[in-house]
Amino acid sequence: MNQLTNQVIAKRALILFAHGARDPGWAIPFQQLQQLTQASVPDVTVSLSFLELMTPKLPELVAELVQAGCTEVTIVPVFLGQGGHVLRDLPATVEQLKLDYPQLDFRIAKAVGEDAAVLHAMANYCIDALA
Q1: For the chain, which terminal residue's Cβ has fewer other Cβ atoms within 10 angstroms, N or C?
Q2: pLDDT confidence tier of residue 51, bands split at 50, 70 and 90
Q3: 36 lies in which domain range?
Q4: What is the domain count for the chain?
């Protein structure tokens, strides 16, 4: 499935990288995050990619972005922490992508759950659940 078909591809791309699951409904919050993010940065192509069980996988998506003229990719792991997938699997995949696409600039952000603002928002949500 080519998720970029109806998008105008910017030179810069932001990839929200999530784990994936068998249940398609699991991806809904990630799709909403992608849409909210895209609305905030219209000059950047914002896409969603998955490690496993869902598509597109990161190599497929990067190939589409490169083919469309993208030159810079930032990957944000939409994980709560820097576990094995973020510490080992993602860097290994990106190292191969760097070999495959030496013209492409890559940046990997830390896991979203390790950002102080995200943690505060989650804590506020948990506190609000008491009401």
Answers
A1: C
A2: very high
A3: 12-128
A4: 1
